[in-house]
Design goal:
Residues 10-22 have low confidence and may be disordered. The protein has one domain (30-155): Alpha-D-Glucose-1,6-Bisphosphate, Chain A, domain 4 (2-Layer Sandwich). Strands 1, 2, 3, 4, 5, 6 and 7 form a seven-stranded antiparallel β-sheet that branches. The radius of gyration is 21 Å and the shape is elongated. A hairpin with a 2-residue loop joins strand 6 and strand 7. Helix content is 33%, strand content 38%. The protein is α+β, with helices and mostly antiparallel strands and 161 residues long.
Length: 161
């Protein structure tokens, strides 16, 4: 019986150690696409997109005209949009909770490819607020890449088929 017990213990130790070194997949993965417009034009139009309430529900959080980077945030996302944009891996408590609010923080980075084209990269960070009674919990959620593709299309990218 002792050799079998030693083998079981060795297997359990191996599983615990290997799980400790497991590499977790990144939660935020940018989407990229080439846009056939100069970087300055794309930057100006997307800055307007993130600041003009008639064009989007985003609020510009920060901008850097030197690196052509825009960061914008959207809150009070409808449950329909949330369901298309993000997936939240919840625990048992959140499964019976209700999504109260969702937040999307989008980072758009633009780089000059040629004088007449821009390499655009969009990444979205999602956070869902779940509530059950007076208990609230915030959960980092994973993108379904729909919002990033929408942002790239607004910047002038041709939608992928």
């Amino acid at each position: 019986m002792k050799p079998l017990t030693g083998s079981i213990i060795a297997c359990l130790v191996f599983l615990v150690v290997s799980a400790a070194f497991a590499i977790e997949q990144p939660r935020i993965i940018p989407r990229s696409q080439e846009i056939q417009r100069p970087v300055g034009d794309v930057y100006a139009s997307m800055r307007k997109y993130f600041t003009d309430g008639s064009l989007s529900r985003f609020k510009l959080v920060s901008e850097d005209s030197k690196t052509h980077t825009l960061v914008a945030k959207e809150t009070d996302i409808t449950s329909e949009d949330w369901g298309r944009w993000a997936y939240c891996e919840t625990g048992p408590v959140q499964m019976v909770s209700k999504l109260q609010d969702g937040t999307a923080l989008v980072t758009l980075k633009l780089e000059k490819s040629t004088p007449h084209s821009t390499f655009a990269s969009a990444a979205a960070d999602f956070e869902g607020t779940y509530a059950l009674g007076s208990n609230e919990s915030k959960i980092a959620c994973t993108s379904k890449f729909v919002l990033e593709d929408h942002i790239l299309a607004a910047a002038g990218a041709v939608p992928a088929k």
